[in-house]
Every structure is written in C-alpha cells, then in structure tokens.
C-alpha cells in the first residue's frame, strides 16, 4: 500500500524533516574534557549515542543525505514521474 503524499503547496512537494531530543555532556578526562552526545527519536524511541561530536556530525550528514535522496524520489513521484 502506497503512502498518500500530503501536498504542502500546489507547486512544491512535501517537506522532509526529522526531530530529535538532543543531549550533550562533558566528561573530564585526565588530560582534556571530552564531549559526548545522544539523539533520541521521539517517533520511534530509538536512541543513538556518540562518543565524539565528530561522530554526531557524521551521523547527521548521513541522515540528511539519505533524506535528500528520498526527497528527490518523492518529488519525482509527486510530479508523476518514475
């Protein structure tokens, strides 16, 4: 069964978005402090933890790239293309 797409405007496909609960904390190490983070997805209850901020940023970039690819596919479907 295909999902029905909600049109937000006659000339624009539906927007893609994600929502997370973001947590950030610092752990003092022997030499330096280290920042850690987690993201909770309220829609699924899934939690993803990150030992470094770099890991967090990589995850967010990967998610946005996936969403961009899906958005292109959705736009083509919305416009009646293949």
Explained architecture:
By secondary structure, the protein is α+β, with helices and mostly antiparallel strands. The protein has a domain at 21-71. The chain is built from one helix and three strands; from the N terminus they run E-E-E-H. A three-stranded antiparallel sheet has the order 1-2-3.
Unreliable stretches (pLDDT < 50, length at least 5) are 5-10
Intertermini distance: 17 Å
Oligomer: single chain
The mean pLDDT is: 79
| Beta-strand content | 15-25%
How would you sum up the global shape?
A: elongated
| Number of DSSP E strands | 3
Biggest sheet architecture: 3 strands, antiparallel
Write a brief caption for the model.
The protein is α+β, with helices and mostly antiparallel strands and 82 residues long.
Outline the fold blueprint.
Blueprint: E1 21-28, E2 33-40, E3 47-50, H1 53-78
Antiparallel strand pairs: 1-2, 2-3
Summary tags:
82 residues, alpha+beta, three-stranded antiparallel sheet, 1 helix, 3 strands, 24% strand, elongated
């Amino acid at each position: 069964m295909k999902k029905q797409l909600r049109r937000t405007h006659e000339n624009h496909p539906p927007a893609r978005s994600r929502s997370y609960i973001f947590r950030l904390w610092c752990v003092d190490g022997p030499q330096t402090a280290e920042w850690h983070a987690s993201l909770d997805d309220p829609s699924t209850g899934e939690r993803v933890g990150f030992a470094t901020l770099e890991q967090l940023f990589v995850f967010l970039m990967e998610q946005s790239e996936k969403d961009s690819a899906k958005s292109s596919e959705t736009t083509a479907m919305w416009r009646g293309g293949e």
